[in-house]
Amino acid sequence: MKPSGARSVSRRHFLQGAAALCGAACRRQDEAAGRTVASLWFTYGGRNRQVLERLVARFNTSQSSYFVRAVYQGDYFEGLAKLRTAVAARSGPSFSHVVGEVVPYLFEAQVLEPLDDYPGAGELGILHALGQAGSFLGGSRRPLVALPFNRSTPIAYLNGQIFEQARLAAPTSWDTLREVARRLTVRRGGRVVRHGFGCPIDWWFWVALVGQAGGRIVDAAGRVTLGGDAAVQALELWQDLVQREGSMKPPPGRDYNAWEQTNQDFLAGRTAMIWTSTAFLKYLEENAPFPVVAAPLPKHVERAVPTGGTHWIVLRQAPEHEKRAAWAFLRFMHEPEQVIEWATETGYLPVTEAAIARLERDGYFARHPNAKVALDQLAVAMPWPWSTELFRIQREIVQPRLESAVLSGANAARLIEQARALIEGQSG
Amino acid sequence: MRPHRPAAPYLMMAPTALLLGVFFFYPVVYAAYRSLYEWDLLTEPRYVGLGNYAHLIRSGELGHALMTTLSFSLVVVTGAMSLGLLLAVALNRPGKFAAFVRGAVFSAYVISWVSVALLWLWVLDADAGVLTASLRALGLPTANWLGDPDVALYTLSAVTIWKIAGYAMVLFLAGLQDVPLVLHEAAALDGASALHRFWHVTWPLLRPTTAFVGTTSLILSFQVFDVVRVMTQGGPVQATTVFVYAIYEQVFLNLRVGRASAQVVIFFFVLLVLTLVQLWLWRRKGAA
Fold first, then answer.
1. Where are the domains of chain A?
2. Which of B231, B235, B242 is nearest to B119 (CA)?
3. Contacts of B128 in chain A (CB under 8 A)
4. Angle A82-A88-A94 (CA atoms, 0-180°, nearest 5)?
5. Buried b vs exposed e over B245-267: b needs ≥16 C-beta within 10 Å?
6. Partners of residue B251 in chain A, C-beta under 8 Å
7. Which residues of A touch B152 (CB under 8 A)?
């Protein structure tokens, strides 16, 4: 039998716990009491989430008028699905952040609040290539509805130790990419124990290759054409590396699962060089048991990269006072301190001129040359078309054909031709 | 004879009928209505008649999802039933060891699908996975279990069989314990071997259990989602895009609610027909 004392202590503990919970809940209410509350739906886990939550907490303590309540909503696509459903049910957040590809779609669906007339909208000092004006063809002709948040480009990461031992430099052309991947691939007993190169079979990297081969997935009139012969060349490069030379590892899984697998292969030394997002810079540097060297993507006929990541958006249907609170937070997030903290803690690109100038002045890029590589690549960044259908073209038409060509060895030219015909059929 | 309280049965059924109506029939009817529209939740729905169904058939999406799901289900239902029956026959005996093994096998069924998927993701890693390493150590051939379009669907089938075989085993065990011992004794006295006793005594009496296990395994395998979402995301090259995952992709990734609704309606009827056919077959055999 339990001694009676134990029972009373247990009850006391229970009551104390309940009181603490009530206290915490009341404190949470108190924090926001008397302030205008804006809800933010965000889509990061891990380190990025911690950094964002820290910045939100700083905003909440830095002033007494507004309170931002940040709620995690899964990955980009889960977050978008919830956002869309919530908008339809008129119960969405005040603001959120979404991948660039869906900004035109959400704009045309009249979900996004135009921000041009908000105080200080023209004085944020956004880096042209990363803002709405530079990220989308014709982005400057439309109302300002998206502000850059976690922006990135694809980048090459090299295992510094392996490259030093092999006395090889980062590839600067497709030819040297083939050569380096081949030389760094290690076979034992008829199987590959280390691939020279790893890259997710993903539309984003393929668009980079198309650009490097001199094509653009959209023509001057804004139609999605997939980039002429460059589209086939890009796909054939992957086919060669994966199927004929066996020097590139296509990771299993799709979407961000494949990206994560690419990172794990690199960290475990199963690939000597990978292409992935600048977003993983800090993560890879901190977790690799070898020096990580960032390098720009190589060129074929020219250098080119797409941009990626997400943009802040404010929901048109949110009440006016919440929009004002959201705007106050967005202005806060575009101040150099926050831009710098976000960029240097995560690896995403700094999005304002003032932040970059301060980082230069403080010698940050001299101390962290890897961070400078991504920034320099912005000189060759390609804008996306302002297309409401691009994300569907990507998911439904192009992505399955990229996988089919690389993993099943289907004819690249025929697949691209099929994709073009389907796109024309859709737009026609 | 007039019933004493004629309304009583309807009142008793009402809560269940209400729940089924709100959470099952209404969504299906609403999906059928929405399947006639092109809609993305945000913009005004546009009436397209049977356009969504026509697109699903013309593009091959429907055929692909259906074939992938049927292949998956065929392997899973056959595998889970065979393994479940085998385990039930082997473990239908007293003793602590048999009880422990029964518990161990069934435990997989109560673990969440996501946990199972994550566990197997680790086991099946093509480079560092336990399975690949073990096969290599034994000098046996390995495969890219989740990265090869020809292999991935069967890998997911195997994981699903591993997960639900315990459930089939428990049902078969219950069925086995209902088989009267005297029938076995009589057959043994007549000189029937163990195999003959199983085939001519046990198996016919297990038919209702088998029908139940088959039907529930079929429904379960048709509803597979979690393992696909966690382990392959429908790839590689859409080799594992089963029906429910195709619906998820359509509505959450491609933002096409109308097409997803059309898939839901088709899925509902496919499942209904398959279940009816299976039950009819088993009942006919039972009657015979």
1. 35-152+308-380, 154-306+389-427
2. B231
3. 268, 270
4. 65
5. bbbbbbbbbbbbbbbbbbbbbbb
6. 81
7. 252
Q: How many CB atoms lie within 10 A of CB B122?
A: 11
The alpha-helical segments, DSSP class H, found in B191-256 are 194-197, 203-205, 207-222, 226-231, 243-248
Q: What is the CATH number of domain B41-287?
A: 1.10.3720.10
A41: left (phi over 0), alpha (psi -120 to 50) or beta: beta
Superfamily (CATH H level) for A35-152+308-380: Periplasmic binding protein-like II (3.40.190.10)
Distance of CA A39 to the CA centre of its chain: 22
Q: CA torsion B107→B111→B113→B119, rounded to 10°?
A: -80
Q: Are A111 and B42 in contact (CB < 8 Å)?
A: yes
The domain at A154-306+389-427 falls in which architecture?
3-Layer(aba) Sandwich (3.40)
Instruction: Kindly determine whether residue A105 and residue B144, on different chains, have CB atoms separated by under 8 Å.
Output: no
What global pTM score does this model have? Answer: 0.83
Inform me whether the C-beta atom of residue B252 falls under 8 Å from chain A C-beta atoms: yes
The answer to whether A316 faces chain B, any CB pair under 8 Å, is no
Contacting A residues, span 45-84, partner chain B, CB-CB under 8 Å? 77-78, 81, 84
Query: Do the domains A35-152+308-380 and A154-306+389-427 sit in the same CATH topology, yes or no?
Result: yes
Q: How many residues does chain B have?
A: 288
d(CA B47, CA B38): 6
State whether residue A421 sits within 8 Å of chain B by CB: no
Q: pLDDT of chain A along its 428 residues, tens only?
A: 334 444 445 666 666 666 665 555 555 556 677 889 999 999 987 888 999 999 999 999 999 999 999 999 988 888 888 898 899 888 999 999 999 989 999 999 999 999 999 999 989 999 999 999 999 988 899 999 999 999 999 999 999 999 999 999 999 999 999 999 999 999 987 788 999 999 999 999 999 999 999 999 888 777 788 988 999 999 999 999 999 999 999 887 777 678 888 999 999 999 999 999 998 998 999 999 999 999 999 999 999 999 999 999 999 999 999 999 999 999 999 999 999 999 999 889 999 999 999 999 999 999 999 999 989 999 999 999 888 888 888 888 999 899 999 988 889 999 999 999 988 877 65
A209 vs A234: CA distance, rounded Å: 5
Nearest to B235 among A77, A109, A254 (CB): A254
- A391 chain-B contacts, CB cut-off 8 A: 255
Token look-up 């673990």 returns B111
Of A109, A250, A403, the CB nearest to B43: A109
